[in-house]
Amino acid sequence: MNDVITTCKMCNMPCVKFGFNYVKIGKKQCYYCRKCNLKFINPIELKKIRYKLEIISMSIQWWFDGFSLRIIRKNLKIYYGINPNQSTILRWIVNNSQRINNYINNNLILNNSNINFTDETVIKCKGKNFWLWGILDNKSRYLIGYHYTKFRTTREGMKMFRDYKNKIDKPAINLISDGLHQYSKIASKGALNEFPSRVVPLLMAI
Q: Rounded to a whole number, what is the largest CA-CA distance in the chain?
């Protein structure tokens, strides 16, 4: 038995690693509680998985590379010899995307380039218009900050810029926009305080 790693799901006391449980999809870490003599599987592992984590990870990667669910299913049949339903693949993506997003938000510090692009686009939901604001890094193409709002106002845009400042190690010298007047207002209202950035309309940046 090794060092303390987690807590018992029954008595909430510290537990130790206690070997592995070998199942169809691979091995899972087991834990042992010295107080109540309970042995259990790692509670943070995915539950009720029929497929290897490698297959699920590959499917998620293909999805973010732009592949459709139909193409992902076809690739899984060709490369892994399995044929899951498209609804199963979609469930993998939905269930794990939030875990990935939380990990990135809590652990990733972006090495930002000198140029970022900021824009907003309308999204229709149940017949109503909503707005998705975003800031994209020119070099890595990483979506640094984003915000989903009901209105396209300066106040809503400032929320996105606050999220942007929390995720980067240094500001871009130029934030290139499409010329929407809200961006200049956001800068003038202090959303970029302590940052040497300037908002530049796209036509001026060319």
A: 69
